[in-house]
Design goal:
Chain lengths: 472, 92
């Protein structure tokens, strides 16, 4: 087994080295072909500096350049622009593809993750053969094939208070394509401090949100566009934050949001709005600031797109108001604690050891009369569940409906009141909360009935009992 | 369309998963300052878990939900209005 692993590892290495040298050869060839073309072009045109773009660029970007709102000026602005995409996932992939395709001059990508199988249904620049690659490398390889003209910069690390200033200051426009509250506040803050417009999008399940923040990108206290804190001053409680891994995501839903980010980026760049000094100089007194909108996309709704009008900067905003308490020093030194601000969920530990049972232990008591209460969402229950288990999703317990919490709506009348109830979920967090709620509602009949949580959920079940259990 | 004497409330993202609804009709008039408490009564714990970090719009425009009713300042949600409860979505 070990030697098989070693030779597989060796093969993988050999493949990636061969791919690397193939890539280099292709780049060389491209260089030569390009040279040939421009040499032959020279014989026709004596003055090679006559046109601001190369012949290839006119052809490549022609279809968008003849759109009146872009034009040659817009194309030159794109070529001069430096765009930063933070997050090379479901939002970042489509956003990057269209922005690179449109001919932006420099495109930076920030991500510290590697490509996994569960990414592929939505992260369209990563292919099956790129599993285990760094996402930034995988993305840039795809982008180079799409358009070799832009300069691509890989930042193979997660955005942090420490690196945010040095990365973001190299760019003109920032796209937040990340996946957690702490990074959203951090990116918004650094964009206020460095006066960058921020295009922020997010998606979960069948819904998405898009906001263009800090436009115009003016210093704190000036009448610039609102920041993320103006819109959401209070982060959601950490234990209510759902990731795509837990909540699920439809590929094209997050794709639509990433594509919309690219639309906004191209609009902002081609109209010359990324330069804050130009905005101030050219604004005069009666320039009306357009209201900031949030676009909401709900794929399953009868009205899938909705725009709501947001406020301008919030008086007293921590980051962008004249009373701002934020500085580059306080941010980069770590004295603004984003993790603490957003809270964190330590592994749930709300039960006593005797209120929990190992998965392997549970498999041994399955023959006795009992109830297995599966609190995953119904869709997950439908993918796989254990025979005889009862499904009552966790969300049904949240609203606090009495007949759910005291069991009367789901416990069969025939069940003796000393038969045990075991609670299970995907990873073993929600099941603990439910176990606690059931006991508080008195379902344990003053200790007559055992109520316990299957420790580690179905993840543990797969590890300890049934290796064939589908991992989804 | 909301029936007579009602307004529409739209639930997005975690507000929708908490209430298990996309929208519903609630009786008018309702002072905006009472909105969160009213919803918290219908859906136990919703105020702290969801509402306090939400963006709220009235007829597609941002509104500040006052912590408590301030004399005469309070907006009243009227018949036919549309209120949206928009929690931050951070994943992507
Ligand atoms: Zn602000």
């Amino acid at each position: 087994m070990e030697s098989a692993n070693a030779s597989a590892e060796g093969l993988r290495k050999q493949i990636s080295e061969t791919e690397e040298s193939l890539r280099k050869l292709k780049a060389q060839l491209h260089q030569f072909e390009f040279q040939e073309k421009s040499d032959s072009a020279k014989t026709v045109s004596l003055d090679e500096h006559k046109w601001p773009l190369s012949a290839e660029e006119y052809k490549r970007y022609g279809r968008q350049m003849i759109v009146p709102s872009v034009g040659i000026q817009g194309q030159l602005r794109l070529k001069a622009a430096k765009v930063l995409i933070i997050g090379a996932g479901g939002l970042g992939c489509p956003a990057a593809a269209y922005i690179a395709g449109a001919g932006v001059g420099t495109l930076g990508i920030v991500d510290g993750d590697v490509v996994e199988t569960s990414n592929l249904h939505r992260q369209i620049l990563h292919g099956t053969e790129k599993i285990r690659w760094k996402k930034v490398d995988s993305m840039i390889a795809s982008l180079k094939s799409l358009n070799p003209n832009p300069a691509y910069v890989a930042h193979a690390e997660h955005i942090s208070p420490q690196n945010s200033e040095s990365i973001v200051k190299q760019y003109d426009l920032v796209l937040d394509c990340t996946d957690n509250p702490a990074s959203r506040y951090l990116i918004s803050d650094i964009c206020i401090l460095l006066q960058k417009t921020l295009i922020s999008a997010s998606a979960l399940r069948t819904d998405g949100q898009l906001i263009v923040l800090n436009l115009p990108p003016l210093p704190a206290g000036a009448e610039g566009g609102p920041c993320y804190r103006c819109v959401f001053p209070k982060p959601p409680p950490a234990d209510t934050v759902v990731s795509c891994g837990d909540g699920g995501i439809i590929g094209p839903v997050v794709g639509v949001m990433g594509v919309m980010q690219a639309v906004e980026a191209i609009k902002i760049i081609t109209s010359g709005k990324i330069d804050s000094s130009a905005e101030v100089a050219g604004s005069g007194e009666n320039t009306k600031q357009e209201p900031t909108l949030m676009l909401l996309f709900s794929a399953n709704s009868s009205q899938p797109f909705r725009s709501v009008k947001l406020r301008s900067r919030r008086a007293g905003c921590f980051a962008c108001s004249k009373d701002s308490q934020l500085s580059l020093e306080s941010l980069t030194s770590g004295s603004v604690d984003y993790v603490l601000f957003c809270g964190f969920t330590s592994p749930t530990k709300i039960l006593q050891p005797e209120e929990r049972i190992e998965a392997s232990q549970y498999s041994k008591v399955r023959s006795k009369q009992h109830i297995l209460l599966d609190v995953r969402d119904k869709v997950q229950f439908d993918i796989c569940h254990l025979d005889g288990s009862i499904n009552v999703p966790f969300s049904n317990f949240q609203g606090g409906k009495e007949d759910v919490v005291d069991g009367s709506s789901w416990i069969p009348d025939s069940l003796p009141n000393d038969a045990s109830v075991y609670v299970v979920c995907r990873l073993g967090n929600d099941s603990q909360v439910v176990t606690r709620k059931l006991k508080e509602a008195g379902l344990d009949a003053r200790g007559k009935r055992y109520i316990g949580d299957v420790k580690g959920g179905f993840k543990a079940w797969k590890e300890q009992v049934d290796q064939s259990w589908p991992e989804y | 369309m909301a029936p007579i004497g009602h307004f529409t409330v739209l639930y997005f993202a975690s507000a929708s998963s908490y209430t298990l609804k996309d929208s519903e009709f609630l009786p008018t008039p309702l002072p905006l300052s009472k909105l969160f408490d009213h919803l918290d009564q219908r859906y136990k714990g919703m105020k702290a878990k969801v509402l306090e970090s939400c963006l709220v719009t009235l007829n597609l425009e941002y509104v500040d939900v006052p912590e408590s009713a301030t004399d005469g300042q309070d907006l009243i949600i009227k018949e036919g209005d549309e209120v949206a409860i928009i929690p931050p979505v951070s994943s992507g």
